[in-house]
Amino acid sequence: MRVLGVDPGLTRCGLGVVDGGKGRSVRCVAVDVVRTPPDADLAHRLLGISDEVERWMDRYKPAAVAVERVFAQHNVRTAMGTAQAGGVVALAAARRGLPVVFHTPSEVKAAVSGSGRADKAQVTAMVMRLLNLEVAPHPADAADALALAICHLWREPMRARLAEAEARAAEMARTHKARLAAAAKQATVRKPVAKKLPAKQSLVKKPAVPSPAVENPGAAR
Questions:
Q1: How much of the chain exceeds pLDDT 70, in percent?
Q2: Confidence of residue 212 (pLDDT cuts 50, 70, 90)
Q3: Beta-carbon contacts of residue 56 (< 8 Å; ≥ 6 apart)
Q4: What is d(CA 8, CA 140) in angstroms, rounded to the nearest whole number?
């Protein structure tokens, strides 16, 4: 699997392509940094990044794109520029139908060095070791792009399997719930309805009350 890792930024945008082989073997295909002049218009800077990223996608044909997620930065302006550059990359990938996954810096550091608190020097050293590079990628944005690609190659298969397992579990739960509801509905339909019987009439006849006897009919006259 071939992955394009992107460390987004307006002034420097790191790009790194890595091939993943059997197990955890990885190989560096290409690495570079796209630069845009700080005094240029924002729209033109984003256009320059987009054009170069699209050239890389067309040339190296990655199967997926890994982008660093903007987690937290004290400089709001820098964070906004980084997010905008990342959005441009995601848009270029979406036009080609490529999956895009955003990884946090701590995820990348943990995947490459084993510690989510590793500094840039440690990450660069591990990238060189994993990819058998004799020269350290420079500047650090280039090494970060390669680290992103490696992180994606190692983490995404496990993440995909977990997502698939969760989806299967959710589907099984929905199916079980539907079966229970159907069984309850069927039981309600089959339940015999008690018929209301008419009130029983008494079979004992009440004795007739005799009318008062008239002993002396002539007395009434």
A1: 81
A2: low
A3: 4, 15, 17, 30
A4: 12
Give dist(CA 165, CA 39) in Å, integer. Answer: 49
Pairing of strands 64-68, 100-103: parallel
Q: Which residues pair with 64 in a beta bridge?
A: 3
- For residues 89 and 6, the answer to whether their CB atoms sit within 8 Å is yes
* Three-class secondary structure of residue 214 per DSSP: coil
Cis upstream peptide for 157 (omega within 30°): no
Burial of 99 (0-12, 13-18, 19+ CB in 10 A): middle
* Signed CA dihedral, 200, 203, 207, 209: sign only: positive
| Residues classed as catalytic | 7, 68, 141
DSSP letters spanning 20-57:
E-STT-EEEEEEEEEE--TTS-HHHHHHHHHHHHHHHH
**Alpha carbon 57 to its chain's center:** 24
Phi, psi of 97 (to 5 degrees): 75, 25
Mean pLDDT of the chain: 87
158 phi and psi, to 5 degrees?
Answer: -65, -40
Please answer whether residues 34 and 48 qualify as being in contact, where contact means their C-beta atoms are separated by less than 8 angstroms. yes
pTM over 0.90: no
